[in-house]
Amino acid sequence: MPKSAKYEENEIKLRRLEEVFTGLQNNEEKKFNMLKAEINQIKSLHEQNKASREKLFESNFNDLAVLEAKIEGLITQNANV
After folding, report:
1. Closest to 55 in 3D by CA, of 67, 65, 63
2. How far is Cα 21 from Cα 23, in angstroms, rounded to an integer?
3. How does DSSP classify residue 81?
4. pLDDT (0 to 100) of residue 80
């Protein structure tokens, strides 16, 4: 086999490998981007849940403060009777 034919054969093999590699690289990039988007979505949901829990805690704390004030008022009323 002449050198030029062997060179062309190797060039063709190299181009095929580059195409396969490029395809694999594109697939991996797509997978990475999908995972990144899912992670960002999970982070967002976590932050929303955290904010909801904090709001609920604050609401419960305020409700307890109101109840405490009512109880203190009742105790004061009963002490004055």
Report:
1. 63
2. 5
3. -
4. 81
